[in-house]
Specification:
Shape: elongated
CATH superfamily: Vaccinia Virus protein VP39
Strand content: 25-35%
CATH architecture: 3-Layer(aba) Sandwich
Number of strands: 7
Order of helices and strands: EEHEEHEHHEHHE
Structural class: alpha/beta
């Protein structure tokens, strides 16, 4: 989560651990804040101009409480940018559409151990969370986030690894999943790989 304070530009990067690059940490405008996002945010009432919450909600015990907290820390007229990928919309170009649908469904319904609250439908739920506090809705946007790369640093590769993990407890499906990933690698080698996921952004304003 990112938050900016009133006055001289100050960006607070709030997370359970610091994963910021060194060049960002060395920027005097950026402050790394280690906090439990299931607890009250470590800011005073009406202290911030902007809050940007990206792919946070699915990891929280109570996402609505997170919305209430952002309302509290925003000044009147301040904005909350609430964004999330909707993983159930993951699209892979492959040679087996039925298997792809089966594997994506398995991925969405099987949260990984490191993110047990993961919710593959969270993107479409953001607007429903907005009424947890008396925000004004400024805008709602969605788009397909398109990726052509399929290597260890790419989003498509990471989701495919999640698919393999989700299928691991079913021996037959695990074999099919490995073959499916090999098929994606083959498509990538010929420039025909495509991965997309729908991203949702809801911009909310605390009334002046």
């Amino acid at each position: 989560m990112l938050a900016s304070a009133a006055g001289p530009l100050r960006i607070h990067a709030v997370d359970t651990g610091s994963g910021l690059d060194d060049d960002v940490l060395h920027d005097e405008r950026v402050r790394s804040v280690i906090a439990d996002l299931d607890e009250p945010l470590p800011f005073a009432d009406a202290a911030l101009d902007r809050v940007v919450s990206v792919n946070v909600a699915e990891h929280l015990v109570d996402p609505r409480a997170h919305i209430v907290e952002t309302f509290r820390v925003l000044r009147p007229g301040g904005l909350l940018v609430l964004a999330h990928s909707d993983w159930d919309t993951a699209l892979f170009a492959s040679d087996d559409d039925a298997l792809t649908r089966l594997l994506v469904d398995r991925f969405v319904s099987t949260p990984p151990r490191f993110a047990e609250r993961a919710d593959g439908f969270m993107g479409r739920k953001l607007l429903g969370l907005a009424d947890a506090a008396p925000f004004e809705i400024v805008s709602v946007e969605t788009w397909a986030d398109c990726h052509r790369r399929f290597d260890a640093d790419s989003v498509g590769w990471k989701v495919a690894r999640g698919v393999l993990a989700a299928a691991a407890d079913d021996a037959e499906l695990a074999v099919r999943a490995r073959a499916w990933v090999q098929g994606l690698e083959q498509l990538a080698s010929t420039g025909r790989f495509l991965f997309t996921v729908t991203d949702v952004v809801v911009v909310l304003r605390r009334p002046a």
